[in-house]
Amino acid sequence: MNPDELLERIQQLTAELDVQPDSRARELAQELVSAVLAIYGDGLERILDTIGRSREGGAAILDELSQDGAVSSLLLIHDLYPASLEERVLQALDTVRPYMESHGGNVELLELKDGVARLALQGSCNGCAASRATLELAIKQALEEHAPDLNGLEVEGITDPAPGGFELPVVHSGTSEPPVARSGPSALPDHFGPFELPMAGAQAPRWTALTAGSAAPPGGLRTVEVDGVELLLANVAGSLLAYRNACAACGDPLDGGTLEQGILACPRCGVAFDLPRAGRAVGGEPLQLAPVPLLQSGGVRVAVAG
């Protein structure tokens, strides 16, 4: 079995054990698992201590081991991971920050308490129509890769999704504070498995790799179709941005419009949109294009929901 299959099997066995009628048998099984984990944990700690005493060579080995998913999971279970939870959360946010900054936004860690990270979307991402997609497809994914032992996640600046989008549960605090999206710990105790952000809706978005050469040329536009949805790609100062190819004012396609210094004017109605600022209308009109999450790591990928 690979690590994912083993984790799934552990979750199944844990669930079956929890419903066994013999309470004494449950206690013995849980005590046995704890004892086995303690033996392995002690051995791992001794191994890491020996590696750590090897100075620079040991540091390189530790770094390589921490990049291995199966090994890092074991280190997390036994609280032996070389980087603290806060350091790993910050590393995760650093990986998505270039994407968010390309849309005039940002994300910051406000607090990490009792294993729960409280984040804030800033700039154009705060209140953006695509803020939930950004959370699900960029921030959450990065946190699952770097900090699967988080107990929970709170994010300020999440808005209600546009029709046809997908939803994440939103908890209102009952005060004037912004809405907060929350996730809870996994079904297994302690560090078993990543946290989850439950999703609802007919279709969850997924990353789709674009073919080579489909990206827009510098300062230009290009249309692509992904899952039956026509998207407009724009290259603004070397940054690729993606939107649904429909004007927020008249509904017509935008690919025939004029793009100058990040401002795209609709070829039919003339309404202009600031693409680096999440497609908000220029001039204060309450209009905004529909941004589509785009990543350029390992090729160009976009994510379209429903």
Task: Walk me through this protein's architecture.
This protein has 306 residues and is an alpha+beta fold. It folds into three domains: 3-77, no CATH class; 85-183, GMP Synthetase, Chain A, domain 3, CATH 3.30.300; 206-304, Rieske Iron-sulfur Protein (3-layer Sandwich). Helix content is 33%, strand content 23%. It has six helices and 15 strands. It has a five-stranded mixed β-sheet with strand order 1-2-3-5-4. A hairpin with a 2-residue loop joins strand 8 and strand 9. Mean pLDDT is 76; it is low at 161-204.
A few lines on this structure:
With 306 residues, the chain is an alpha+beta fold. It is built from six helices and 15 strands.
What features would you highlight for this structure?
306 residues; alpha+beta; GMP Synthetase, Chain A, domain 3; Rieske Iron-sulfur Protein; 3 domains; five-stranded mixed β-sheet; four-stranded antiparallel β-sheet; 6 helices; 33% helix
**What ranges have pLDDT less than 50 throughout 5 or more consecutive residues?**
161-204
Distance between the termini: 34 Å
Mean pLDDT: 76
The named CATH superfamily of the largest domain: Fe-S cluster assembly (FSCA)
| Range of helix content | 25-40%
Largest sheet strand order: 1-2-3-5-4
Helices and strands, in order, run as HHHHHEEHEEEEEEEEEEEEE
- Provide a count of the helices: 6
Secondary-structure class: alpha+beta
How many independent structural domains?
3
Specify the biggest β-sheet. Answer: 5 strands, mixed
Morphology call? elongated
Count every beta strand, where a strand is a DSSP E run of 2 or more residues.
Answer: 15
Beta fraction: 15-25%
The Rg value, from CA coordinates, equals: 23 Å
CATH topology of the largest domain: GMP Synthetase, Chain A, domain 3
Would you identify the CATH architecture of the largest domain?
2-Layer Sandwich
CATH class of the largest domain: Alpha Beta
